[in-house]
Each structure stands twice: as C-alpha cells, then as structure tokens.
Amino acid sequence: MGQYERLLVAPVGGCIGAEIAGVDLRDELPDEVVAEIRRAWLDHLVVFFRDQPLTPEQFSAFARRIGTPGRYPFVPGLPDHPEIIEVKKLPRETVNFGGIWHTDTAYLPRPPMASMLLALTVPPAGGDTEFANMYAAYEALSDGMKGFLGGLRAVNSSALADVSKTREDRIADATAAGHQASESYESVHPVVRTHPETGRRSLYVNVAHTARFEGMTEAESRPILQHLFAHQSRSEFTCRFRWAAGSLALWDNRCALHNPVNDYHGHLRLMHRITFEGDEPR
C-alpha cells in the first residue's frame, strides 16, 4: 500500500478495509484529494468515513466525483434524487435488506462498479456490516481449484429465494407507490474475474445470486459452490464495520462481498445508498 499525502488512511483489518480521516465530504474537494480517496479505495477494497452528515445533494455530488451513479432495478430512488435509494429496516420488521453475503446485483449484465452507503439512523447496538476480500479468497485456493475454476462461467439470478426474501418488504413498498419491479434478471459471468483497474484476479460468485455453473445443473454445481461460499467468507478475509449516524462506506463490488448483520430487531436502521455503473465482468 502506498503512502497518502492528503489523507489519513488507517487499515481496520489485516486483509480488507481502511478508515479515512482528514476530509470533509461536504466540501468541493480538489481533484488530488479525490484521486487519493480513489487510490485508497482500490488499495483497501472498502473505505470508511466518519462524521459526514451529508444532505442528499452533497451525497450525490460526492458520488459523481467517484463514478457514474446508476439505478437499482427493484426499488425507486428518492423523488428528487432517483440515484439514491433508502435501505431501511423498520422496528416491526425481522428481515433486513440484502441480509446475506453478496456483491450487489451480480445478476445484471454490467454489475455495479461500487456501492456507497450513508448512515442516517442506526440502532443503539448491532447493525454492523461485514466485508470480505475476494482477491484473498481466490489467492488462497489450491492451484488445482484455480485451474478448474479458471474456465468456468456462472449463472447469476435475482430470483433466488434468499434474495427475494430479503427485499420483499421493499418491493411491496415500491409496488404500492406505483413502481413496477421486473420479475427477475439473469446474467452469466466468469467465476474468476480480472479487475479492470488493478489487473488482479478475484473470486466472483456469491451465495445470494449464483445459481449454478454454465453448462452444469444446479445439483452438479451445488457441492463446489457451497465450498466456495464457505471459503470466501472465512474470517481471515473479512473486516467488520460499526456504523454511527454520519458514517459512510464505499466498497468495490468487483472484488469484495458484504453482509449486513441482522441483529437489531425492534430498532430502526435507515441508510441512503448509491450504486455506480460498472462494466461487463471479464
């Protein structure tokens, strides 16, 4: 990891994640500072900022310095900022949004490059998010497994039962508001993808979206996928972030998984999320 001249960058885990201090994201940041933020993000896969009480306008403006905001296919955005969606769990709910290890919308032909989450209201305890390094997960595989996976492609679907369950309340809210969500999406991507900016290889499957290998049945694929799902969330590949109001996380969907921990029943957790347009995995 390189040195940073304009930021304070402190790793939060041995394998993934860093907290950035010394910057106020409400400001009009110089290009040099944005470039260092982006470099820290590429170095650490996920970066965290504290005490950033951004308005939707400020949140969206900072996002546009990082990439091109995209749209989530299942939930409408805010009326004045359609690129921002609410990630919300109400006190009466017991199922959270996206509560399983995943990379965002891997079932799209061009999955998002990154996602950014801003905490507005958090529970008094719990509601952390875990992140996992898929470079490290790939590099820890045996040479035989790397060779086997190298030529495989995987079918990723939005219709898997666990994913449908985690978003059912959000879809119901969206439908009630007149937003029509598509029934399902499906895309085929390499099991091992090469990062377009770093050139590093990473494991690109996840338990929320990956249904099977192309050319194989689900039954044939299942034992290998189950092994990979267990392998990629091993503790040595992960870090865990505790949120506070005003905390912001920016993570790289091309080489990292995340898992929002659902351990705060009876409390409101409200976030704003922006995803960024990405490219076709290769």
Number of strands: 15
CATH class: Alpha Beta
Terminal Cα separation, in Å?
25 Å
Spans of at least 5 consecutive residues with low confidence: none
- Please give the share of residues in helix: 10-25%
User: Structural class, judged by helices and strands?
Assistant: alpha+beta
The CATH H-level homologous superfamily? Clavaminate synthase-like
Cα gyration radius (Å): 18 Å
Question: What is the string of SSEs from the N terminus onward?
Answer: EEHEHEEEHHEHEEEEHEEEE
Number of helices: 6
Biggest sheet strand order reads: 1-2-3-13-5-15-4
What sort of overall outline do the alpha carbons produce when their principal axes are compared? globular
CATH architecture: 4-Layer Sandwich
In short:
The chain has 282 residues and is α+β, with helices and mostly antiparallel strands.
Structure description:
This protein is α+β, with helices and mostly antiparallel strands. It has one domain (8-276): Double-stranded beta-helix, CATH 3.60.130. The chain has six helices and 15 strands. The chain has helices spanning 31-44, 56-66, 134-139, 143-150, 161-176, 218-232, and strands at 8-11, 18-21, 46-49, 85-89, 114-121, 129-133, 153-157, 186-190, 192-194, 201-203, 210-213, 238-241, 248-252, 256-260, 269-276. The longest helix has 16 residues, at 161-176. 40% of the residues are buried.
List the helices and strands and how they pair.
Blueprint: E1 8-11, E2 18-21, H1 31-44, E3 46-49, H2 56-66, E4 85-89, E5 114-121, E6 129-133, H3 134-139, H4 143-150, E7 153-157, H5 161-176, E8 186-190, E9 192-194, E10 201-203, E11 210-213, H6 218-232, E12 238-241, E13 248-252, E14 256-260, E15 269-276
Parallel strand pairs: 2-3
Antiparallel strand pairs: 1-2, 3-13, 4-15, 5-13, 5-15, 6-12, 6-14, 7-8, 7-11, 9-10
